[in-house]
Structure of DUF4071 domain-containing protein:
Amino acid sequence: MQAFIVRPFGTRKVLQKDKTGKQVPIDFDFERVQKELILPALDQAGLQGGTTGNIFEAGSIHEDMFSLLLVADLVVVDISIHNANVFYEMGIRHSLRDKRTVLIKCPGFDETPFDILGYRYIAYNKENPGDAIPDLLQALEETRQATRVDSPVFDKLPNLISQDPERFLVIPDDFEADLRVATVQKNASILAIMATEISGFQWYIPGLRQIGEALYALRCLQPARTVWEKIIEHNRNDLQANDRLATIYQRLAESEITANLPESEALFERSNIAIEKLLAHRHDLTPLKRAESFALKARNAKALWLEAWKNVPTPDHFSAAIGSTDLTIAFETYEHAFMECLNHFYSGINALGLLITTITLAERIPEVWELKFRTTSLAKQELEGLKEKLEAIKQSVYYSIEAGKQIIGENDDEYAWLKITEADFICLTETRPSRVKLSYQNALKGATNLNFDAIVRQLVIYQQLGVKEDNVKAALEALPAISLSSNKIKVHTILFTGHRIDQAGRPEPRFPPEKEMAVRKAIKQALQKEQETINGPLVGLAGGACGGDILFHEVCEELGIKTELYLALPRDLYIAESVAIAGPDWIDRFNKMYTKLPWKVLSQTKELPAWLGKNKSYSIWERNNLWLLNQALDNGGLHMSLIALWNGKGGDGPGGTEHMVKQAQTRGAKTIVIDINMLA
């Protein structure tokens, strides 16, 4: 988050009463206050910021000052003395933004102006300003998370609308171009790197939004989660972030439900919390968005309902299914979603399906159904009420589908789902199985973007619970067979990093050519141990530098492990930078590898993107390491190992083996170090 500091500059002559009550001039060093109090507190709070002093040299001081007062996430104002510039700038901030202004003051000098009298400030002593760091730090943390208005203007005029700073922030064109290219390439690792690289820029949050949307569209759930949660850290009530996270948490919960039910339940609850935050602003949402939000909450309940009975032996699973309260919650929430927007046929068909399921089970095992109620008569009364509701929902869903045919064009992606929904409706309401089969066959004609797994899984639920059995059987005959196993084996990635062959005349040998066979043997032993340990498919990732990288690819080929080649630069430039120093034999080995393996290139030049600005501590080689690491972590740290050929020391330049090892360790990756010093 970005902070802006508003304060007097330099050392000022101020009046202070002495012991006799006489006003005497003394020096007040405001530079010291910033150095010893404000900046340390901002740093400990994870905030970056400065004053207008940072932009004097740029020329357009007023424009920049007004911009910073508008877009800064938080403003710290020192009101210790009557300074016209300070109060002018504070007034601008209070007029533009309703929250996140922190006041500080050294008591004993000028009186606080009437207009802000009574508003909280953090007191400090100008002789020892650093003593107030804990108080200011606490105020910064509280202000960052607070929803309370701290602007007197917005406090007294509550109908005023605070400005959205993102409306005034310009994202660099070249950043957006790089984002588009990475999205088309489906390069989630680059997108994840960009999300960390833009930290500290004024346009950080809108930049994160674009990255988060790209990752969400690519269904890269974990990196998308990380990006949207950064936006939530900035504003926990952000509508777009809560909307995206509600779905992301839900999808992650479904993927964990078999292997780790407690974690899955926690993710479902996170999803529900995000939905509730979204719906707290229901008047800012369209009817369709409200329907989608309630439908997602219903889907969460439905997933937990399925978990309650899917592993229960037959016929006890019927009782488990009708006895679960999540069935009722799922139905009622889908029904609510449908009532929010009758054009939302997805929620309507789901409400209808769960209602028919409830009625079917209640009639099949009335003794279990009746246990849900205080008396048998109440149970029968409720069942009759559900049957009456069934007729109404049938009619509503029918007309929702018919309306959809008028609204949605046949070339629209949603049209195929509308036709499947119509087939689902026929399956749930028709008495002729042959018509059910025909409806699914017609719906599938020309459909290329359908998730057949979802269609079949829903029909299998009906099949397992004995709902519309003949119709469901006919429907399944019309659909392609799929595997319903939820235990997808994840590929384990082995990432390699290591030293290049020493150039002739290297002052301190590190990887002399005579160690090549010993290094090859050590890499092979490390890979064979991973093969024995990992239960599942393996893939290797590495660069193509002479020495360790090329040896890794060659040994993987011997062991039957597929590898992918990741190059920081295009082939010709890469050879000049990382291969040619070892001589023509290594170039031949690189070319052989290059022609056989799938390869990717990070950048066309050694220069970093212009939107990154000048950063002497960051180069193409650090960026390359992060690119490789993020790619290797695509399936999570549990499914990734790093093999590092390393002498335990710093590298000859940026982005070496030490950098990769440290980055991997901070991400929790299993790290296997081959100490080249111990190889003979």
